[in-house]
Amino acid sequence: MKRSLENIEEQFETFQILNEEGKIVNEDAMPELSDEDLKEIMYRMVYTRILDQRSIALNRQGRLGFYAPTAGQEASQLGTQFALEKEDFILPGYRDVPQLIWHGLPLYQAFLFSRGHYHGNQMPEGVNAFSPQIIIGAQYTQAAGVALGMKKRDKKAVAITYTGDGGTSQGDFYEGINFAGAYQAPAIFVVQNNQFAISVPVEQQTAAKTLAQKAVAAGIEGIQVDGMDILAVYAATKDARERAVNGEGPTLIETLTYRYGPHTMAGDDPTRYRTEDMDSEWEKKDPIVRFRKFLEEKGLWTEEEENEVIEKAKEEIKAAIKKTDEQPKQKVSDLISNMYEELPAHLQEQMEEYKAKESK
Amino acid sequence: MAQMTMIQAITDALRVELKNDENVLVYGEDVGQNGGVFRATEGLQDEFGEDRVFDTPLAESGIAGISIGLATQGFRPVPEIQFFGFVYEAMDAINGQMARLRYRSGNTVSMPVTIRSPFGGGVHTPELHADSLEGLITQQPGMKVVIPSGPYDAKGLLIQSIRDNDPVVFLEHMKLYRSFREEVPEDDYTIDLGKANVVREGNDVTLVAYGAMVHSALKAAEDLEKDGIDAEVIDLRTVMPVDFDTIIESVEKTNRMVMVQEAQRQAGIASYVVSNVQERAILHLEAPILTVAAPDTVYAFTQAEEVWLPNYNDIIEKVNKVINF
C-alpha cells in the first residue's frame, strides 16, 4: 500500500534561485531579465520598504487609517506583480497594496483606501484590479470567476489573487481553486505564507507540511517558493502565467515569507507570539539584502543609487499625502449614492435628510 | 400569447434574455444537461451551448463568488442556488461581497447579477429547502429582492431583473411553479422593479402580501366579500425596495391594514413594512396594523407544515380584528 504523504515534502521542495548570500544557486531556472529589469526590481523593493516605514509613521501620527505592514514580504508581493501584464487582473488581500500601486494605483489613492475614502477604491481606467479584500479568502472564488470570464472572452490574460497561510483554511480557498481547476481557467492563486495568521502559527493552522500541496486535491499545479527570493517568485509566477494563458490551467504558488511588523497597526503586538530569535532568523533571509548583494556583485547597484531611491520615495510619499489631505472628506451622501445605480425611493428620502445635515 | 405555468414562464424569460444579450450566462448545480432540478433551464444548454449555459461544481459560495468575477468581464450572470435554504453557504459572497462592490469600487463597477432560487413551503421538502429567507437579503443595502406571485409577473420581473445593473435575488415559490397557468406573451416585456401591483381593489382594508401569500390573501378577500368586507390586495412583487407609495395610497383609502407573509414573524419584511407604514400614515389608521406570519421556529418541514404555514383563515381572523377594533 502506497501512502500518499510519504514523499510530499520532496514533491513540494522549496524553489530557490538566489540564496541568502546573494548567490545564484539554480542557474538553469534564472529568468530572462535585463540589467534594466533587475535594477527596476531593486528600485521597487527599496521604494516599497520606505513606503512601509512612512506608512507606519503616518499611521502613528493619525494621518493614515487601516494599515497592514508589508516589510519582509516585498519579494512575494513585487515578484509576482512584476511577472504580470497590464491586462492581468489583481484581486488583493488587505496587505497587498504594493501590488496595486505597481499595477497603476496612484499612491494618494492607496492612502485614501487606508482612510476608508471611496476614491481610494476607484481604480483608474486601465488598472485591472479590485480594491483590497478584508474577508479572508473571499477573493479566491472571485478570482476563479474573473479567470473564467477571461477564458470566455478569449483574453490572453490572467487573474491573480493573494491570501495568507490562514486563508488556506477557508472554504472559499478550496472553492476558488477547485472552480478554476474544473474550468481550466487562467488564474494564479498566491499564498503568502508569512508563518502566522495574526498570532496562530502555520503548524496549528493545518497538518499539511506545505500549503502548495493543497493544489493536488484540486487537480491544479502547485509550487512552494522561497518568498524572500524575488527571482524565484518572479520565475514561478511567469511560468504560471504562461501556462495559464496557454490554456493549461491555474497554479497555486506558496511563498515562504515573513512580516517583520505587526499584523496591522490596530494594536497587534507580535512579541506575544513570536520570539526575537525567530525574527532575526528571518531578517537574515531579507529579500532586499540578498538582492542588493547580487546586484552589487554584478556592478549594477551602488549605495548612492539606493540613497537616491530612498530620497525619491520620501518626496513622492510626502507629495501624495498632501494630495490625500486635499481630497474632500467622504460624506454620508457619498455612501448613499454608491449603493445602487439608481437610488430607490427610500434612499432618496435618506439622501435629502443627510444632504440637509451636511449643508449645516 | 400562450398559457404557461410559472416554471415555463421563467424558462421563457431566460431564453428571451439569452437571445437578447450575448453577455447573459446561466449556470448552477445541475442546470446544464439536466435542465435544473425543477427544469427551469430545460433545453437551454442545447439551444445556447455549454459556454453560456453550464453546470458548476457543487459549492454555493463558489457559484456566487464566480458571478462577481464574471461580472468584471462584462458578463450578466444568472446563477441558480438550487434551493434557497442553501444560501447560508453563500452569504458572504452575496451580502459581504456582491452587494458592496458598487460602493467598494466608488461606483465604477456594477454587479448585474440575478441569483435565481426556489423557496417556499407546502411541497414537503427536507429541511433547509422551503425556508423563507428573503429577509437575510433585504437587510443588506445594495441588494434587490424580487418575489413573483405567478407566471405573467415571473417572466416580466425576471427579464427586468437580468437587465438591472445591481444584484438581484429572484425568489421563486415552489408551490407556484406548476399550480396554475396564465396568459404569458411570447415576446419580451418587463415589469418595473420596486413597483407593487394592486391585484384587487377594495375600500375596507388593505392586505399587503407577496409570493404565494398573494393567493391566500385573494382567497381571504373573496370570503370576506361574502361578509360585506371589501378588501384591497397589494402584491409587492419586489420586497426590496418596497413600494411604500402604493401601500400608503391604499391605506389612506381603507384606513386599515393587515401585513401577510409566509416567513416567520421575526423574519421576512413584515416588521420593516409595518414600521414604515405607521410612520407615514398613522393618522389615517383606524386600527393597529396586524401581521399574519409563521411562528418564530425553524421551518416545519414535512410534519405540521400545513398548520405552521399562514393560510387564508389566519388572514380572515386578523382582518376581522382590525375591522372590529
TrEMBL record, chain A:
Residues 44-332 form the Dehydrogenase E1 component domain. It is an enzyme of class 1 (oxidoreductase). CDD domains: TPP_E1_PDC_ADC_BCADC. Keywords: Oxidoreductase, Pyruvate, Thiamine pyrophosphate. InterPro entries: Alpha-ketoacid_DH_E1_comp, DH_E1, PdhA/BkdA, THDP-binding. The pyruvate dehydrogenase complex catalyzes the overall conversion of pyruvate to acetyl-CoA and CO(2). It contains multiple copies of three enzymatic components: pyruvate dehydrogenase (E1), dihydrolipoamide acetyltransferase (E2) and lipoamide dehydrogenase (E3). This is Pyruvate dehydrogenase E1 component subunit alpha.
UniProtKB/TrEMBL annotation, chain B:
One of its GO terms (molecular function) is oxidoreductase activity. This is Pyruvate dehydrogenase E1 component beta subunit. Residues 4-179 form the Transketolase-like pyrimidine-binding domain. Keywords: Oxidoreductase, Pyruvate, Thiamine pyrophosphate. InterPro entries: THDP-binding (IPR029061), Transketo_C/PFOR_II (IPR009014), Transketolase-like_Pyr-bd (IPR005475), Transketolase_C (IPR033248). Its cofactor is thiamine diphosphate. Pfam families: Transket_pyr (PF02779), Transketolase_C (PF02780).
